[in-house]
UniProtKB/TrEMBL annotation:
A GO MF term: L-amino acid transmembrane transporter activity
Residues annotated as transmembrane: 52-73, 79-105, 136-153, 159-180, 187-212, 224-250, 262-285, 305-330, 351-372, 378-400, 420-440
The protein's name: Neutral amino acid transporter
Keywords associated with the record: Membrane, Transmembrane, Transmembrane helix
Compartments reported by the entry: Membrane
Family in the record: Belongs to the amino acid/polyamine transporter 2 family.
Keyword Transmembrane set for record: yes
Domain Amino acid transporter transmembrane, chain residue ranges per copy: 51-440
Length: 465
């Protein structure tokens, strides 16, 4: 059944040994590939390929849901209940298919560890550099968003009692320390705490808005400009933007063919959570809904919710920072398919390089979050440039690469798939162009309104409304 499903999606013959569900053959492909990411780990001091599927699912859920869920109620407030539900379900379904295609590409090419490796397969050295740099830039900005959200959380909890720059530094330092473990398995248990944290926080928020009663009606939206409407759409796209780390997650799974289980768990869980939180909070808060969602309760509950949400704010950032550092780390210590001893031993060179990379990533994230006065809108620009492709468009390219030219139009069903995956590529291009327009328009309007704060300001950024 699983073989047939993958064959249906990719257009490849079902005897492909890298198909999902064919555990023994897929494991042999990984074991006997030309080279693997981490080399022979049998006697290694540090073993990376140790995660079982549910740990990978927990990591993916923690990475994806943390900040994504906090923006969903404001999407419903901007677009209305019906459009919000359609977007969450529709984009979630497409994200499931594109995530599956990333898994299929990884199993076909077991040595792929990140988007840079995939880019090399697709377009040689230029593809490697373009996709590698894009992944690093995107993930550093995501780390910056976690620093900023941590700052807002601490400011809200303390009612702005200290300089906000201090809280940004504290957030960055906490994330740096938690990023230090060298394997994803080593931080997978933190993701369980992250999930419990965000679920508890949003439950408190939903209970809080329910107790406060209806503050506004649910209305249909008909007077939105294209820019403001699509800016809300980019929030949903960002909420499903975990695909950028999928290759690295699969590379550290004990059985990569089990990735489909982790993916289905993630997509069912996050889509369900987004719908529940979006519908409930918007139904009670109405047009008064604010983002992040935890700010929709009273002052006391808001502080409690942010205090409970701190673990997920930090841990989700840690996962992104870890994947970013791992990409560069592997790039340094893997040459011509040979893994250096520094990757799998407790050498001074290995640990100093790893720690230095983690420090650099979080230092840059801190500076970006503090220096740029329109950071949230800039994150929209970055998401439009990169999430549009990593979550959607690039998977269409993968499908065309995996499917021989002569098979693409061989049957009516193959033609449907060819048109669908071509549409995914066009979808990525449209999201990029429209998202850039909407985000840049928001930046211009922000400057006109004078709503941007200065760099490294001590002014409180707590939610007080």
């Amino acid at each position: 059944m699983a073989n047939n499903l993958r064959a249906s999606m990719t257009g490849s013959s079902i005897d492909d040994s890298s198909a999902y569900g064919n555990g023994k053959e897929a494991a042999q492909v990984v074991q006997h590939s030309e080279f693997d990411v981490y080399g022979d780990e049998e006697n290694a001091d540090i073993q990376y390929r140790t995660m079982v599927w549910w740990k990978a699912a927990a990591l993916m859920l923690a990475e994806t849901v943390s900040l994504g869920i906090l923006s969903i109620p404001s999407v419903f407030g901007s677009l209305g209940m019906a459009a919000g539900c359609i977007l969450v379900i529709g984009l979630g379904a497409v994200a499931t298919l594109t995530g599956y295609m990333i898994g299929a590409f990884k199993l076909r090419y077991p040595h792929v560890h990140n988007m840079a490796d995939a880019g090399e397969i697709l377009a040689g050295p230029i593809g490697r550099e373009v996709l590698g740099a894009s992944q690093v830039i995107f993930m550093i900005f995501i780390c910056g968003s976690h620093v900023l959200t941590g700052l807002i959380a601490f400011d809200t909890i303390t009612a702005g009692a200290s300089c906000s720059v201090l809280w940004a530094g504290v957030s960055a330092i906490i994330c740096l320390v938690l990023t230090i473990p060298r394997t994803l398995n080593g931080i997978s248990y933190l993701s369980v705490a992250s999930f419990i944290s965000i679920i508890t926080a949003v439950l408190i928020t939903m209970i809080g808005v329910g107790v406060a009663g209806h503050k506004g009606g649910v209305t249909a939206k008909a007077d939105l400009s294209f820019a403001s409407g699509f800016l809300a759409v980019t929030d949903v796209i960002f909420a499903y933007a975990g695909h950028v780390g999928f290759f690295t997650f699969i590379a550290e799974m004990r059985q990569p063919e089990d990735f489909s289980k982790a993916l289905y768990f993630l997509q069912i869980a996050d889509t369900t959570l987004y719908l529940i939180v979006g519908v409930v909070v918007y139904a009670y808060a109405g047009d008064n809904v604010v983002s992040p969602a935890l700010g929709n309760t009273g002052v006391t509950l808001r502080k409690v919710a942010y205090g409970i949400a701190l673990p997920t704010i930090m841990i989700a950032g840690v996962i992104n920072g870890h994947v970013c550092a791992k990409l560069i780390f592997v790039r340094i210590f893997r040459r011509n398919g040979q893994a250096s001893k520094h990757m799998t031993t407790h050498s001074w060179t290995g640990w100093l390089t790893w720690t230095g990379l983690c420090f650099a990533i979080w230092a840059i994230a801190f500076v970006i979050a503090e220096v740029i006065p329109f950071f949230n809108d800039l994150l929209g620009v970055i998401s439009a440039l990169f999430a549009s492709w990593f979550t959607y468009g690039i998977s269409g390219v993968f499908w065309f690469h995996l499917t021989p030219r002569e098979q693409r139009w061989s049957t009516p069903w193959q033609r449907v798939k060819t048109i669908f995956w071509a549409g995914i590529i066009l979808m990525g291009a449209f999201i990029m162009v429209a998202g850039l327009y909407a985000s840049i328009d928001s930046i211009v309007e922000g400057y006109k309104a004078g709503t941007f704060s200065g760099p490294f300001t001590c002014a409180s950024q707590a939610l007080t409304a």
